[in-house]
Amino acid sequence: MKVSGDWIRNPATQSVCRMLEQAGFQALFVGGCVRNALLGLAVSDLDLATDARPETVSKLAKNAGLRCIPTGIDHGTVTVMAHGISHEITTFRRDINTDGRHAVVAFSTSVAEDAQRRDFTMNALYARGSGEVLDPLGGLPDVLSRRVRFVGVPAARISEDYLRILRFFRFQAWYGDPSNGLDAEGLAACAANIAGLETLSAERIGAEMRKLLSAPDPAFAVSVMGLSGVLAAVLQGADTKALPVFLHLAADLPRDWIVRLVVLGGADPTERLRLSRVESAKYRLVRDEIGSLRRPAELAYRLGAAQAAQIVLARSALMESPPPKDWRADIAMGGQAVFPVAAADLMPALQGPVLGEKLRVLEARWIDSGFELSKDQLLS
C-alpha cells in the first residue's frame, strides 16, 4: 500500500529523503503524517525516522546546504529545514527504562524496535519517500478501520507514560470510529491506572484536554471517559450528559473547546488544567453568562455574535430546553447594535462616577427597548 499527497511529493521533502538515502541510511516518514494520509486527512507535521545518528543527520544536512536545528538532539531528534519546510528527524530508538513520565532510550538500527516503543498501532506506521507503507506491527487494519489500539500490552504502554491514558481518549475523539466502540483491553488498562494521572503535571494534562475537546465531535470519547472514571480524575464533578446535546445544537458553529469545558461543569479547572489568564477569564465569563438571565440580543451586544451564539446553545443544552424563539435574529441584531449615547453628550453637567452611572442607566433602558430608543429619546 502507498500513501500519496502534495506533502510527500514536495521537492524539498524529497531532497531530505535523498540526503539520507544516498548516504546509505533509511528515511521513513512516521506517525501522524502517515496516519493522516491513510485516513484522507490534512498532513501538517513531517516526522521522519532513520537509522542515522543525530550527529550524522546534522552533518549530512550541512553538506547539503540545509539548515539543521538540534531541537532534541539528546533524544535523537534534529529538525532539518528545506525551503522553509520543517522536517523533524529522529534516530530509531528503543526504551531502556521508563518511570511513567520520562523514558531513557538507546539508539537502534531496527525499525521494528522503534515501532515497539510507540503508543498506538495507528502511530507505528512508516512510509518511504516513494510512498510505500511499512507496517512492522500490523497496525494498518487498525488505521483503516479507525480503531485506536495500544501497541503490545496496554498496561505496559501506559506505565511508560501515564499521559497515554488521556491520549487514548483524545485519539478516539479525533481518529476513532464510535461504531467500533473503544478497545476493551485498552479501556480496562486506562481505568486500572487512573492513579498514575496524579504523577503528571497540570500543563501536560491541560494540553491533552485542549486537544481532546477541540476534536470535531468528542462526545462519545468523553462519555466513555466519564464512565471509566478517568474524567473525574481530571475534572472533578464533571457531567457528560449535556455535551452531546450542545455539540448537536452547535454543529454549525466554530469549535470552542473552552465552551465545551464549561458545558462539562464541575470544579473550576483553572489550576488542574493550568489555564492561561486569558483562558481562565473566558472560562469564567462563559460560565457566568450561561447562568445569567441576559437575553440573546444583549449577549451579542456585549460579547459579540459568535460568543453569544455559543452561550445561548450551551445554556439550552444544560437547561434541557430548546433555544429561545428567533435567537439567531436577535443575536444578529444585538451584534450590530451601537449605543447612541457617548459620555460627551452628558458633559459637563455630569462628571466622574455620576457620569458613569448615568451612562449605565441609559444603556440599560436602550437595551430593554430592544435597541430602538434614539439618542434624543434617551436624553430627553
Describe the structure.
The chain has four domains: 1-144, Beta Polymerase, domain 2, CATH 3.30.460.10; 146-234, cca-adding enzyme, domain 2, CATH 1.10.3090; 235-337, no CATH class; 340-379. It is built from 20 helices and nine strands. With 380 residues, it is of the alpha+beta class. Strand 3 (67-72) and strand 4 (77-82) form a beta hairpin. It has a seven-stranded mixed sheet. 48% of the residues lie in helices and 11% in strands.
Low-pLDDT runs = none
Strand content: 5-15%
- Which percent range fits the helix content? 40-55%
The value of Rg in angstroms is: 27 Å
Order of helices and strands: HHEHEHEEEEEHEEHHHHHHHHHHHHHHH
In short:
The protein is α+β, with helices and mostly antiparallel strands.
Keywords summarizing the entry:
48% helix, 4 domains, Beta Polymerase, domain 2, elongated, 20 helices, cca-adding enzyme, domain 2, 380 residues, two-stranded antiparallel ribbon, alpha+beta, seven-stranded mixed sheet
Topology summary:
Elements: H1 6-9, H2 11-21, E1 28-30, H3 32-39, E2 46-50, H4 54-63, E3 67-72, E4 77-82, E5 85-91, E6 93-98, E7 103-107, H5 111-116, E8 126-127, E9 133-134, H6 140-144, H7 154-160, H8 163-175, H9 184-192, H10 202-213, H11 219-228, H12 230-234, H13 243-249, H14 257-264, H15 277-290, H16 296-303, H17 305-319, H18 327-336, H19 352-368, H20 375-379
Parallel strand pairs: 2-5
Antiparallel strand pairs: 1-2, 1-8, 3-4, 4-5, 6-7, 8-9
